[in-house]
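Model it.
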Amino acid sequence: MSNTSASGSGNTYDAILVGAGIMSSTLAVLLHELEPDLRLLIVERLSSPGLESSSAMNNAGTGHAANCELNYTPIKEGGGISTAKAFEINKCFEQSLEFWASLAEKGKLVPQTFLNKLPHISLVFGDEDIYFLKKRFSELSSHPAFSQMEFTMDHGELKDWIPLVMDGRKQSEKIGATRIKRGTDIDFGNLTRSYINQIERKESIEIDFLTDVENLQQDREGDWYLSLKGINKNRIVKSKFVFLGAGGGALSLLQKSAIPEGLLYAGFPVSGKWLICEEEKLTKIHNAKVYGNAAVGAPPMSVPHLDTRWIDGKRSLLFGPFAGFSSNFLKYGSKLDLFKSIKTTNFLSMLQAGKDNLDLTKYLFNQLRQTNEDRIETLKRFLPLVSPTDWKLSIAGQRVQIIKQTANGGVLKMGTEVVTSSDGSLAALLGASPGASTAVTIMIEVLNRCWYEKMKSNQWQERFLELFPSIGKDINSNEEALLEIRKRNDFLLQLV
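Modeled.
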């Protein structure tokens, strides 16, 4: 690429964002809101936005706020409950709601197209898990962020909460649940398309669909040159800043960038499967996201849950996910993705992570052996009277579990990770859960790392405060501030 150049101002941009999913589209809208004249280029290998990880069928559609996800409150050594992650994720999701509320107030988002209010429920079975759930409830419900949480073991009350789940269940069965009514189901694919729709006609923004990034390279002046291969044209484009928000495809692009920070990472792909039901006789009865406890060794994306979902406006039930394996890093990727990602710099990290996570390896192996009858048996834990003919198997999205080289060797990272170059000219988003729900907070982190001078300017500070009125207020410790921002968000997003 060193022998080529981006000729003409038409190929020079203030920022190039790779991928047209929830991450890149969130960053694009943020940048445009903060400085409308910035020239932005979004590059997407598929034909339209939000078709990969952001697509409704390729993710859980949960507004992750730690209301029901038990893996966000692990048991500490000594038997206590760790709540730090739950509080952090709850705060992050509230920031997402705040951003969407600000855009809705400006007439730039229609909440009903992607957002539905839906109770979030944690459901457990047996004395040990009920004991854990009680402790979790005690720890969280005393805090303003989770003060609306309810707990019950009463079968009659549970029948009101989740009638389909309780139908046919023995009265003697020990079962416990918590509920927060202020939960959400989100079609992140529709949200992504809403973002793109509001900016794609702007003079300062360009979107190239059906276009691959073949290579990227930084020159001595710090400018990035990207080689693009499109369905109709190939070209070289130039920018001071590049964001790799390409889902599972971000790792390979990060490796191509050759920044030292990228050498620390490897990845292992995990695919997902859902059982889906569209029978109205069932979909109209169940009205909640019901999360169970994870199996030993299971990654966060594989916590079993029975969800009401709205996909492109149609109501359905989803259960899963079940793990699968494909060497693709993207659902619509290449079987060679995994093998191409293995380098001399990350091979030992991958081996060590595999050795240190034998429970996960065993879990994935057992998942691959499952038949549809096995999946229905798992579903019976949630729906004792399940009829297999009401449910069909659907392929979900592809995720890449990140392995990071540390002083202690290769470590499996279950969350999301922002990787930035030392000069702040390139950022990449790696990882999975909680992903889309915290996209706003993650992209603010990117801005703070890579656009720090702009972020300190009066212009950006003023516009930032318009988008996030709660900035500067610690809503985790200030109950009045929390209630104030929730009242605003719920009103503007029609969640009341």
